[in-house]
Amino acid sequence: MPASASLNIRLTGMRCLVASLVFFSASALAAQALPTVSQVDLARYTGRWYEIARLPNRFERDCAGDVTATYAPLPEGRLSVLNQCRKADGSTISAQGVARLAQPGGSPSKLEVRFAPAWLGFLPMVWGDYWILALAEDYSWSLVGAPGRDYLWILSRNPRMDPAEIDRLLQRARELGFDTATVVRVNHR
Known about the structure:
Elements: H1 3-31, H2 42-45, E1 47-54, E2 65-73, E3 79-86, E4 92-101, E5 110-114, E6 127-135, E7 141-145, E8 152-156, H3 163-175, E9 184-185
Antiparallel strand pairs: 1-2, 1-8, 1-9, 2-3, 3-4, 4-5, 5-6, 6-7, 7-8
């Protein structure tokens, strides 16, 4: 076999391999799509939420307990966001931000949040995904995550939640592809 024919066979084989990898990668990404709830009334979603459990993350590393998120309506369908928590020394950490629909005119179950200064709001990397994955009919609890499955929160309107309900929501998170082995349960005074 001439060297050029051998090279053509190898190149054709490489092209098939690359095409297969692209196809299977696209299929795997489609299979990993993260479903959100179909309906969210953002007016009912506003108010105070108590963080019950979360995946560890860098921006809550100093939080020892009493973690809350308070949402209030803003113009243009946005929400103000006030996150607070108690540090180990008893002092409080606060972060003020804003939430918006991830897609203009899109589903209110897919939000983006920004805690960076407003003048940086034009930069895509300052916005983080906040997707509502499960929500109680009476808005008493919410399961929130990000499509990369690196962020996850269980929120409740009350500082205490039925342990069986927490376990059920963690099971739902596992079914959605979240690794819940390192979930932090939050203490509220």
